[in-house]
Amino acid sequence: MRIRTAVIEDVEAIHRLIQVNAQRGLLLPRGINSLYENLQGLVVAEDEESGEILGVAALSILWKDLAEVRSLAVDDRARGLGVGRQLVAEVVRRAAALGIEKVLSLTLQADFFKKCGFEMVDKIQFPRKVWKDCMSCPKLQACDEVAMQINTFAMQSVPALPAVPWPSQEKVGSSPG
Known about the structure:
Layout lengths: L1 E4 L5 H13 L8 H6 L4 E5 L6 E11 L2 E9 L8 H15 L4 E6 L2 H6 L3 E3 L5 H6 L13 E6 L17 H4 L5
Parallel strand pairs: 4-5
Antiparallel strand pairs: 1-2, 2-3, 3-4, 5-7, 6-7
């Protein structure tokens, strides 16, 4: 398995994975248009042999000092293999490399995020998040998500972001010309 930046050809598989997990109440659904618009913030876990997408997570920048882990979803066949933890770690590393101090998660999976180093905090600390996304959420009046955050500046060490090459023309399926 490898963690990499998502590309256009991944979007339909990402959308299916998110929708399956959303139907189970594990996260909020996302429209396919939103995935295309925010592709640059998506990372995927890919089975190196089959090329199948095993998991996805998104880094959403909310402000100069705050980003969010969004749309974390793992395929049933890959649960318990550390895929989710690796995706969260990659999103946090990317935020730190950009100079973003805090990464937030609004989640129903508090125990999982605690294992990833996040701490529970009060949602009131994130008014930009509330006004940006929460006001249009169907769960607004009965939100059952917990706010958690990690301070990237307090982490022991943050590896530099590896250079992510653009997909080759062959991979994307178009020819030079």
